[in-house]
Amino acid sequence: LATFLNDLGCQQAATEQQADIIIINTCAVREKAEQKVWSYLGRLQPMKLSRPYIKIGVIGCVASYKKQEIYNRFDYVSFVYGAREELPALQEYLADLLTQMETTKQVFYGKENPGFTPEEKASLSSLILGQDRDVKCVVEKLRLNFSDNRSYPSIRPSSPKATTDTQGDRNLGAANFVIPAEAGIQVPSLNRSMINIMTGCNKYCTYCIVPFTRGRETSFAMSAIVERVRQDVAAGAKEITLIGQNVNSYKDPETGALFPELLRQVAQIPGNFWVRFMSPHPQDMTIDLFDVMAAHRHTVPAYLHFPLQSGSNRILTLMNRTYTIEAYLEKIGWIKDRLPDAFISTDLIVGFPGETEEDFWATMHAVETVQYDLIYSFIYSRRKYTKAWAMPDDCPYAVKQARLDVLQKRQIEIAAQRNALLVDKMLICLVEKRLGRDKLLGRTEGNIRVVFDGTDDMINSFVRLLIQSAGPAQMQAVY
Ligand code: SF4
């Protein structure tokens, strides 16, 4: 969407206050993330009142299954586009919306308009609120005269890429866009690019709402994905992430080729960049993926995010995770065999319904066995529509919290030990941004933060850094 809106002539705004369009990309996996959408939308209302021409849209998984609720609760939300809807339809809508918005903005601030008194502005604001989904209606009601010969900057797609792009959305969080005063704005060079290679999921883990919000698996054409990566690398992208709910069940709809072949083709694109992927499902992990990773070390970082969720086979069955801890560990062995210095991260759920002390310690045992560099760990979040919603759960929240504390405390120790092994080593890092006045922030192949003294011209480039000290979440280095 960022690329698409850039192609329409928009620029990304630094803050919501500067934005004409605010698009909120939502995640429904955890209840807390969903709650944040409601409160964030609530906080946007004053902004909409003071600048009624702005547009607020909600996309992603919450938009998929709470569309009507969003429209009912927030009448100033202009569009809600669910994860299962057709992207070209949203693109067409946005292109039209920009034309309308530009008109409304000119009504509010334009030179032809003599200006509104504060009272008129207030009434315009309240008029637009509640009728926001049809801007033309607002204009007609105000009976404002437009001069027809006024020329607006062109905001129609300027390149074929804008209309033929079917690669799905980018993970933007809340992204804010400004319609510029002039057309012809350059697409800013990307340093990171996230490209959907497939969407949906057929796995139906019992705790997960994704199959209900995103639907069944659909893979995008490999030729289009490879071309998209080529374009983004040419535009300056230094890190490409191929994303999907279950990347390694990817299957090219045109040729039937699988994910390792896609990764191989992407890794062979000329350029100085890294390609990552997330997330694979342990059941679908095949050994040839690690062969591809090992053969393309220059481009594919030795990094694997490999979600385990629980170390207990009993809980894995209740979760419908379709693998055992033994099978999972065997696949961890594959990567350690081919890429001995690989960084491995995982997702873990603590306190799934029915989890006993014994089950929890099975998870701890897995953590000790694998020695992850990083874990993303959460207390189970109960989600409506999922099978686990109805599972009996007699474990008090305090017990779950205590288990999570134990897990996270131990992981901090493990990460500190793992990172300490990197001291005095030279590592290649991708420099991300300035951190404070003197420091730069980079990331290693394993996505670990590295802080060092450097100059702005290093940002968005690969540098070799000597690691001097390391903590559990960050390392210090010299160039
Ligand atoms: Fe959800 Fe399981 Fe599919 Fe992952 S694999 S998206 S957790 S249903």
Question: What does this protein structure show overall?
Answer:
The protein is of the alpha/beta class and 479 residues long. 37% of the residues lie in helices and 20% in strands. It has 16 helices and 18 strands. It has helices at 2-7, 31-50, 61-65, 67-73, 87-109, 118-128, 135-142, 160-164, 210-214, 222-234, 259-267, 287-295, 313-318, 325-338, 357-370, 397-420, and strands at 11-12, 21-26, 55-60, 79-82, 174-178, 192-196, 198-199, 218-219, 239-243, 274-278, 303-305, 343-350, 374-379, 426-435, 439-444, 449-453, 462-470, 474-478. The strands form five sheets. Strands 1-5-2-3-4 form a five-stranded mixed sheet. A five-stranded mixed β-barrel has the order 14-15-16-18-17. A three-stranded parallel sheet has the order 6-9-10, covered by helices on one side. Strand 15 (439-444) and strand 16 (449-453) form a beta hairpin. The model is unreliable at 134-173 and 179-189 (pLDDT under 50). Residues 201, 203-205, 208, 210-211, 245-246, 281 line the site of iron/sulfur cluster (SF4).
**Number of strand elements:** 18
Low-pLDDT stretches: 134-173, 179-189
Rg to the nearest angstrom? 25 Å
C-alpha end-to-end distance: 36 Å
What shape does the CA trace take? globular
Strand content: 15-25%
Tell me, rounded to a whole number, the average pLDDT.
83
Q: Number of helical segments?
A: 16
Query: SS-based structural class?
Result: alpha/beta
Q: Kindly state the percentage of residues in helix.
A: 25-40%
The biggest beta sheet reads: 5 strands, mixed
Q: Any chance you could write out the topology, listing elements then pairs?
A:
Blueprint lengths: L1 H6 L3 E2 L8 E6 L4 H20 L4 E6 H5 L1 H7 L5 E4 L4 H23 L8 H11 L6 H8 L17 H5 L9 E5 L13 E5 L1 E2 L10 H5 L3 E2 L2 H13 L4 E5 L15 H9 L6 E5 L8 H9 L7 E3 L7 H6 L6 H14 L4 E8 L6 H14 L3 E6 L17 H24 L5 E10 L3 E6 L4 E5 L8 E9 L3 E5 L1
Parallel strand pairs: 2-3, 3-4, 6-9, 9-10, 11-12, 12-13, 16-18
Antiparallel strand pairs: 1-5, 2-5, 7-8, 14-15, 14-17, 15-16, 17-18
Bound molecules: iron/sulfur cluster.
The site of iron/sulfur cluster (SF4) has 10 residues, from helix 9.
